[in-house]
Structure formats: C-alpha cells, structure tokens
C-alpha cells in the first residue's frame, strides 16, 4: 500500500459536512482498480457462472470492466475539479490478499470504489463504520492515508471508529439466504420491517451509507448491512442529533441512498416502489417537505451491466454539488427531465460502468467539506420521530 500523500493544499483542509446539498468544496472519489469478486462468506452470495465466477469462486474483476469503470470515475473527477471541487483518491491496495481475525479467515477482500459505505462525515467528524461483511472488515485501511492527512492538517477534525465487530458465526442468521429466497414477497417485507434479516443483534453492525444526513436529523436505514444494535450505537454516538431508524418496503434493502435521497432543504426524492413508513412521511410533511416520487430508471435488472449486484434504482443515486446543481447518470433521461422541471441544473455524466464495483455517484464519493453549519430542518416533532 502506498502511504505517502503530497497535498500542496494541505493547509486549507477542513472537514465539515452536515447534509447532502450544501456547496461542495472537497470530496473523496473511489477507484475500481483491484476490486475482487468476494470469496464466500456468511453475509453474501456471488454466483456469476457466465462470467467465470460460479458460486464458491472468487478473484479479480476482469480488466475490461475495471478499465471502463475507472475511466468513468476519472471523468467524474475532471468534472468536479472544473467546478472548483478539490478531489482526493484512495491509495493502491492489495484486495486479493487473504485476511483474518481470531474468529475467521477470509480468502479475499473487496475494493475501494464505494468509500461512502465505509466513511460517514457528520460535521467535523469522520466516522469509520463497523461494516458487516468479512471481506470488507479491513477496508478502512485503504482510506487511512487520506484520513491521517486530513487529521494532521485540520486542527478541529474529529476522527472516530465504531467498535470493530467480531463477525463470528453468531453475528449471522444461519442459512439465511437459502430460507429467505423461499419466502413470499409479503413474508420478505415482514422480515424487512422487523429487521429480521441476515444480521443478528449479537453486536452493533452498520454501513455508513445507511446514514442519511439532514442537518440535525440523521435517518438510519435498518437493512441487510445495518442492524438494530448498529442504529442504537449511532444514536448514542451522535448525541447532538436526532437519530431515527427507518425501513422501506424493499425486499433487499442495502443502503438508503437509492431509496430516500435529499435534494435540498424542503425536498426529498423517494423511490416509489419502496413504500416508506407512514410515520416517516408524516414527519416530513409536518415540516413542509415535498416528497417527490422518482421517475423510473432507464435500466431493468435484465439490462444492468455485467456482474452488477446493484439495483436499477442507482438512477436516483445522485451527487449534489450545491442546492441547485446535481450530478446524474447521463442515460437516466426521465430522472434528468424530472430534476430539470424541479428547477435543478443537472450535470449528466456516464457512470453505469461503475455499478459492478458497488454503486453509483453517491456511493463512489464521500463529501469531506461542504459549506454551512448544522441546521434544524424539522422543528415540528411528530409521533415516534
């Protein structure tokens, strides 16, 4: 791993980001290089026989997919830099290596395309998430050189790491996927609403990408990668915030940023196929927020890129540069048209080749600095929220 970082702009580093829409000044953008098809583990199943990776196998993602994704990531960097945004990239890392703890051995790691999964920035704090997959347990290491650089050059930055989980067999429901796939859709939704999924509550577990930031309010999705104890830890940690646990009617919930996406104060984009908790909707409406039903994505599951394990709803996995400017995948014409009619300046970029590496525009980035301070956008309390 390369650890040396030269940053001529180091004295200007400032970690500060309270929401998803304030003017973006500094951002981290991931890389596709080195990404692995993960070796078998309790939390996930990869089965791509037509791509040379039948169930139980693992290895480097093919070069042609890596090259296409890195080209689009590099293009995003150029676009952001032209708009005056400082961009940082993670260092090279060997994700093919075997890793272990006293509880388990894992034959491979994953990658560093989606830094949003691992790192949450709340105000002047960078928080490293627990992660809930063994292949991603050590993933924080590829971001450490950048984090150390921020910490050395920002006297007010806070740096926290959630308790590293054991991820022993007790943290996972045995034979979950085999049982889950036999359930009816309604039975699956009951389990989603109760967060009775792959993770037990043996220990706190969460991905950073399940945290959505609205100033003083943080919304944490309970999902396949975030359990109730993980939500409790986040709530106890951010004591100056109101932290809410939320679920949506999504059969395979993994990260909130393709389901409930803040656009600007008073406006949030919602995936209409994933019904929200009525109490959550009332909380937003009581505080005069518009809940906009997102236009349908251009892709279907049949037309997703090769080896993608993401949803077509990456169409709404957006990156806001400011309250008026949003970066969107260029093929999502209906989504672009909708945002245009809502008054946004849309910046279309090609990005679907990045999907096989773990997500879209929001997933591929972590906003390190945005202008602004913590504000209360929900002054009117409602129900359990």
From TrEMBL:
Domain of life: Bacteria
Record Gene3D superfamilies: L-arginine/glycine Amidinotransferase, Chain A
Coiled coil: none
Keyword Nuclease assigned: no
InterPro entries: AmidinoTrfase
Keywords: Kinase, Serine/threonine-protein kinase, Transferase
A single MF term (Gene Ontology): protein serine/threonine kinase activity
Tagged with keyword Transcription regulation: no
Family membership: Belongs to the amidinotransferase family.
Listed name of the protein: Serine/threonine protein kinase
Species of origin: Vreelandella neptunia
Highest classification ranks of the organism: Bacteria, Pseudomonadati, Pseudomonadota, Gammaproteobacteria, Oceanospirillales
